Amino acid sequence: MKKLLFLITIFTLTTTFAQTEAEDKGAILTVMKMQEKAWSNYDLEGFMQGYWKSDSLKFYGSNGLTKGWQQTLDNYKKGYPTKEHSGTLNFKINDISKISENSYWVMGEYFLKRNVGDANGVFMIIFKKINGEWKIVADTSC
User: Fold this and answer.
1) Whole-angstrom Cα distance, residue 6 to residue 1?
2) Bridge-partner residues for 128, per DSSP?
3) What is the DSSP string of 89-139?
4) Which end of the chain is more exposed for a tag (fewer CB within 10 A), N or C?
5) Mean per-residue pLDDT over the chain, rounded
6) Within a 10 A sphere around the Cβ of 52, how many other Cβ atoms?
7) Which strands sit side by side in the sheet containing 58-61, from one edge to the other?
8) Cβ atoms 80, 48 nearer than 8 A
9) In terms of DSSP bridges, do strands 103-113 and 58-61 run parallel, antiparallel, or are they unpaired?
10) 45 has a pLDDT exceeding 50
11) What's the confidence (pLDDT) of residue 2?
12) Between the CA of residue 139 and those of 4, 19, 66, 136, what are the distances in Å?
């Protein structure tokens, strides 16, 4: 009987862990779908809602390291001044892996279809659950 109870407990914990991880990944993908839609509508502020609104946000790209939510938004506005420059965004997610209890990394590719010429690249972002919401706390894109 003790063995059966032990096995049931292990099964329940494993199933709960898998369900929670699947829910986390689903919530992260929802944030990224919102970002695709906002970007494609040239709503850069809406796109930035997926990021942690903090001076501790880090973005590392071809121009080096940027710190802070506002500076990241300002850089996006400078680099993509019009809808023709921002285009339509699509992500291809290659991997989502749990780092710790409330954080995941996401590796993937981005595709910008634009009138001024398409732009594609790769990224690795780190999501962290902050105040019940999944936010990007670090982004490396090139």
Assistant:
1) 9
2) 103, 135
3) EEEEEEEEEEEETTEEEEEEEEEEE-TT--EEEEEEEEEEEETTEEEEEEE
4) N
5) 91
6) 22
7) 64-67, 58-61, 133-141, 119-130, 103-113, 88-100
8) no
9) unpaired
10) yes
11) 58
12) 46, 26, 10, 7
